[in-house]
Automatic annotation (TrEMBL):
Pathway info: Carbohydrate degradation
Name of this chain's protein: Ribulose-phosphate 3-epimerase
Binding site for substrate: 7, 65, 141-144, 174-176, 196-197
Gene Ontology terms for molecular function: D-ribulose-phosphate 3-epimerase activity; metal ion binding
Name of the gene this protein is made from: rpe
Annotated a divalent metal cation binding sites: 32, 34, 65, 174
Family as reported in the entry's similarity comment: Belongs to the ribulose-phosphate 3-epimerase family.
Length: 218
């Protein structure tokens, strides 16, 4: 089964709680929250306060994608705010193993993420420790970018690495995922699809989910 995680980056922030409730009613599986610091990526978005507000609006798992440098400084803030899974970028962590364990010690799920140009072998020594491998299919920083086609092969290789090792990690794909390419991405091995502009750009989220389910034959 494919899990759908709409990214609130493309939601209407003026009525964020309402947007999250509508997404939940449409049948999504989790809420993807993009945290950007203006250092690791060239954009600034939201922090723990907004996550706390989203936490109050929904019971769905909050899948928090940290695109920040020095994530170790903020782990407990994001846990307190209500994150169910914290994903850090491999490129932002000098001591990735330490940070993975720091997150695990809070009793929540942990994910690691790779930018498009970062090779898969950088996670070889840690993949067995994590719940999620997030493959970025755009350069992180903004919603509404084009899916990078070579990501398909990377997703395939990531999935086979996980299957070969017998690991539990799910493969999540983030960036440029749309109704039109969702099936190809799932066929390549994605377990979770993040959808920002494709989801929140629709008028009717329920209808969109129906179309998507048909497309994926969930
Ligand atoms: C990009 C973010 C994504 C973004 C995806 O840096 O990590 O989660 O919101 O947006 P779309 O689906 O519009 O590419
Ligand atoms: Zn994201």
């Amino acid at each position: 089964m494919t899990l759908i995680a709409p990214s609130i980056l493309s939601a209407n922030f003026g009525k964020l709680a309402e947007e999250v409730i509508l997404a939940e009613e449409a049948g999504v599986d989790m809420i993807h929250i993009d945290v950007m610091d203006g250092h690791f990526v060239p954009n600034i978005t939201i922090g723990p306060l907004v996550i706390e507000a989203v936490r109050k609006a929904t019971r769905l798992p909050l899948d928090v994608h940290l695109m920040i440098t020095n994530p170790e400084k903020y782990i407990s803030d994001f846990v307190k705010a209500g994150a169910d899974c914290l994903t850090v970028h491999v490129e932002a962590c000098v001591h990735l193993h330490r940070i993975v364990w720091q997150i695990k010690e809070h009793g929540i799920k942990v994910g690691i993420s790779l930018n498009p140009a970062t090779p898969l072998n950088t996670v070889e020594e840690i993949l067995h420790e994590v719940d999620l491998l997030l493959i970025m299919s755009v350069n992180p920083g903004f919603g509404g970018q084009q899916f990078i086609p070579s990501s398909i092969d990377k997703i395939k290789r990531a999935k086979s690495m996980i299957l070969k090792g017998g690991y539990r990690a799910l493969v999540e794909v983030d960036g440029g995922v749309k109704l039109e390419n969702a099936r190809e991405i799932v066929n390549a091995g994605a377990d979770i699809l993040v959808m920002g502009s494709a989801f929140f750009g629709e008028k009717n989220y329920k209808e969109f989910m129906e179309k998507l389910e048909k497309e994926l034959k969930l």
